Amino acid sequence: MSKLILIDGSSYLYRAFHALPPLSNAQGEPTGALFGVVNMLRATLKAKPEYLAFVSDAPGPTFRDELYDKYKAQRPPMPDDLRAQVDPMLAIVGALGFPILRVSGVEADDVIGTLAEQAHAQGIEVVISTGDKDLAQLVRPGVSLVNTMTNTTMDSAGVMEKFGVRPDQIIDYLTLVGDTVDNVPGVPKCGPKTAAKWLAEYGSLDGVIANADKVGGKIGESLRDALPQLPLSRQLVTIKLDVPLEQTVTDLTLRDKHVEQLRELFTRYEFKAALKDLEANDAPVGAHPVRDQTPAEHAAIPAPDRAQGALLHQGFDLSAPGSYELVTTQAQLDDWLQRLSNAELIAFDTETTSIDSMMADIVGLSLSVEPGKACYIPLTHDYPGVPAQLARDHVLAALKPIFEDPNKAKLGQHAKYDINILSHYGIALQGLKHDSMLESYVWNATATRHDMDSLARKYLGYETVKYEEVAGKGAKQISFSQVDLDTACRYAAEDADITLRLHYALWPLLQTEPTLRSVYENIEIPLVPVLAGMEQRGVLIDVNILRLQSQQLGKRMLELQQQAWKAAGHDFNLDSPKQLQAVLFDELGLPAKLKTPTGQPSTNEEALEAIADDHPLPRLILDYRGLAKLRSTYTEKLAEIVNPRTGRVHTSYHQGAVATGRVSSSDPNLQNIPVRTEEGRRIRQAFIAPEGWVVMAADYSQIELRIMAHLSGDEGLMRAFREGGDVHRATAAEVFGLKPEEVSTNQRRAAKAINFGLMYGMSAFGLARQLGVDRGEASDYMARYFARYPGVHAFMEATREQAHRDGYVETIFGRRLYLENLKARNQALRAGAERAAVNAPMQGSAADIIKRAMISVAAWLKERDDAHMLMQVHDELVFEVRKDAVEEVRAAVVARMSGAAELRVPLLVEAGVGANWDEAH
DNA sequence: GTGGGCCCGTAC
DNA sequence: GACGTACGGGCCCACG
């Protein structure tokens, strides 16, 4: 398909002007916005579209000013520094060979709309490059938006996701919301959410107007008051599609560029990279458009997305509506059992009374073996007049042999949840072959959330029935068991159906990338039952210890509160940063040395430490905060969340939450229990083992640093690990040119800070702050470090390079992390993406390794009843072990963890045992 | 009441 | 602007 790229020049000029620092050339002419636009254009040229145009506003009034004299009346005039860049911009754009369109009497949007309409009618794909949300009204299949500032694209699904309305509703949406900048009156008090809600309810603006008297409350009055002006607003926000133009779409090809003019312009405005490109490649670009992308350009597209057009599986359109069967008779059940026994792959899903799998009871079950067809078997729906359902235990008994057959392949969406549910009914699911959530996660962890609604939208272009639509939300939410059977069937059977469709969309993708497929098949899928087992088991908690600690903390907090109030001269809420800020900086007049990201004077630990010598209050607050955190987040929360049935806490592990491949934990988060301070560590004393058992904790020593040694192949760093000993001390000895025994505490501390900082992409500035030395000294440390460990430096450079070349970086096992902001104009965003790129291979490889270890250890534990794996804390596994088995288990765990990867340095594992988690370290 | 942004702090 | 990845509590405001 041919492609037309339409560049919204006005939008880019404004955005580049505000986003970029106010650069200027040697003559003092402003160049910042120009620079941004030129770089964007060069990137556009690299995509080599057949047709392209640069569309800009022409000076003078437009038809909208005639319609409405206040239109854009509140807009400040264009800043002089920006105005000065308009003509040079047009000169460069023209010299690059872009067709430029400026049409009087209309805005750039209208020209873009008209061209998009024409191109679309001719079957030409249209990409509109803009930062302006109003253009979303032009989106439809074959017409999409791209924002090169943020590197995001928006198709129909993207519009739905962002605005909550279809592209064809955008005009009505903008009309309702209005635009204060352009002075377009909307409905006062109606924001994006309300507009989307009304449009969902009444379909269109006309629908909303017709039903205006049905809207209650203040906002209803507001709507009725605004009715007379809405038609005008609609006219103002509607982009024209029929502007008379001299050119047609096929005229809009790239002209030969004017090398001489460009050389002059680039030199004058000091665009060195552009100039270099120009000299390197003197031949006219684009005279013969090339349609094929180079491999590097192809790979640079961050998220492979095949959701465009119909996606077929064996002739079935994966975005078509499905047909679903409510199973309430034995004959129907028998029929489905027959289908299951013939099926190659069974998609299943459970419906329950709670999202907490430990608390949930099963309500029904859905199955699908063929896309578009699924059933729902209600089991325990319970409301007045509910029709007869098959008996729960009877159905589960009939399904048990299938669920427990390891040779019958099963598929789920977030199957860990359903495995946990089934386990409550004595079904130990075997043969989990696929999980659509994990397929999506491995394919591209950051392209989307991995819940079914998001996946269906992205990969199938299909809108699912939402849980809230069938069960309500908030206080009005009802249990799924009270949902009527037909509605439940529509929702639940769809879940199984869509799971299967997602698999047929995603699995072919994974098969094209053997390393991703391997991560999925050999790591993520086998990990599912392991995590399910850990959640089910839970970890035993001594609630009395926690209660006692809560009391003690509370008492000390009260004392500190009294002292703080005295120091402040009056009562205030110590938990409120806002009130604290007023007391410290306004009333007491202490210096506000740090600011929060939003510009407020910060009251964080660093800020308080900085003024702790000037007044007693900061220290009191610091102490109070430490205790408050421990009490609210840990001692009270943990005691609260202990399951009364088991006496244990059953966390949830999330396999699709972390971009680098780590698992996360929540409800409660067991991965941030304090350990660094004595005070905090006491909380770990409440993590205990049953009578006759002990807690065993096994952790990898310096795993990420070892991975850095492995990946970089740096001789010095590898030697440090091979020799054993203290790696930070060894580093300090290298950096400061000493023998290890001569290294001072401070030198070791500096070396440790560098070792860790490097893995996070820290700069000299950051290191200086961390160490409390000046920036020059920090730079000096880093220079010496890189001189001693040149392989590390080369590795980091190579990682950044790979990220820029491919758009992603990889772990040792081939897991990929795509980086979204590497090409961002915004320097901070880009730098952040580069740091993430450097960190991801190490963090991600460590995550892969411990996942492999967990699978291996779980397989070994499977046949035993004297030890259970309970927790994973990124580089640590925690077990409960029967006392008589401690040595055997310790040896096996250490061996399996150490053997989880073959690195160029040893993978050291340390294991400790104790009566509780604190003692096990 | 609830949802969400902000600030802050815990872990690896 | 400056150190990567998470989760979560309390405050506070907008919204219903």
TrEMBL record:
Keyword DNA repair in annotation: yes
GO molecular function: DNA-directed DNA polymerase activity
Family matches, as InterPro entries: 3'-5'_exonuclease_dom, 5-3_exonucl_a-hlix_arch_N, 5-3_exonuclease, 5-3_exonuclease_C_sf, DNA-dir_DNA_pol_A_CS, DNA-dir_DNA_pol_A_palm_dom, DNA/RNA_pol_sf, DNA_polI_H3TH
Reactions that this protein is recorded to catalyse: DNA(n) + a 2'-deoxyribonucleoside 5'-triphosphate = DNA(n+1) + diphosphate
Subunit-structure text: Single-chain monomer with multiple functions.
Pfam families given in the database record: 5_3_exonuc, 5_3_exonuc_N, DNA_pol_A, DNA_pol_A_exo1
Protein name: DNA polymerase I
Function according to Swiss-Prot or TrEMBL: In addition to polymerase activity, this DNA polymerase exhibits 3'-5' and 5'-3' exonuclease activity.
Enzyme class: transferase
Domain DNA-directed DNA polymerase family A palm: 680-885
Keyword list, A-Z: DNA damage, DNA repair, DNA replication, DNA-binding, DNA-directed DNA polymerase, Exonuclease, Hydrolase, Nuclease, Nucleotidyltransferase, Transferase
Domain of life of the organism encoding this protein: Bacteria
Organism (species): Dyella koreensis
EC number from the UniProt entry: 2.7.7.7
Domain 5'-3' exonuclease: 2-255
Family classification: Belongs to the DNA polymerase type-A family.
Location of the 3'-5' exonuclease domain: 324-511
Entry keyword annotation includes DNA repair: yes
